[in-house]
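Quick start: read one record
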Amino acid sequence: MFKAEKHVLTSQDGTKITAYDHGGSGETIVFVHYLGGIAQAWEPVIKYFTDKYRVLTYDLRGHGQSGQPDNGYTFEDTANDLESVINHFRLDKVHLVGSSYGCMVGLYYAAMRRVRVLSLVNIDGAMINDTGEGGLYEESLEEHLAKFEGQFDPDYESVDAFKQYYRNNWEPWNEARANYVNHFEPRVKENGTVGGITTEKTIKNIISEIYYVDFLTWYEKTECPVLFLPAEKENHLEKSMRFIEKASKGLPYSKTVLIPNTTHLMMYDHGKELAEAVQKFYAELPISQKSSR
């Protein structure tokens, strides 16, 4: 695991949440990872922030070393988890940086716990709806889940087989991706194979919570500045840009940055450029959005 001080805490419903304090001083940034990931996903960018900010990460429920209850994957549940992390470290307000599903978790928190958030950075997430006008899909939730049957939690014969699969298929393969895969902690299944920590049931629960959400209704309630970082190489970029335009209209301050050649999980191959975009955004924030903590 990456170098950090590990903290184990309990969310409001009793679920164990594992958080990591990476040190630093100044305002606090909480990084929120993507669906199926773990806190370590942020390792490629953390080093760019600890000289000016305190950095925290945590494993979302159902991920990494946090608990994985059978149910309890609403966005209110994730908001309670995030609030438990912030309260554990005795913080008043924080900056939130999310990736994919982590953007949705952060956006909901920013909309419903407005006084606790200094700013929100969304890295190719919560910038297009799954369904509805301009959404990604037209099928029902049941049809959507059926399309991916057997793909949410594939079986691997061994940890080595898991790692080899990602070496062969996770492009562009580089040091950041290799480091993430090398720290893979397997879940041994009943059939003797291994897989990721997040089970198929958990992934389906989370997708079911996301599928019919209209993120515009959450942006309408958001009062903090927002940085949108869409991925240039994703095939729904034009839809995302139209959505961002709509979402930005009601925000007090927003900015959109398109980093060239980026893909969905851009922290792995554009970590430096990603960090620079976030830092510039922070430097441009209105004085009213800055905090001593």
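The chain has one domain: 5-138+214-289.
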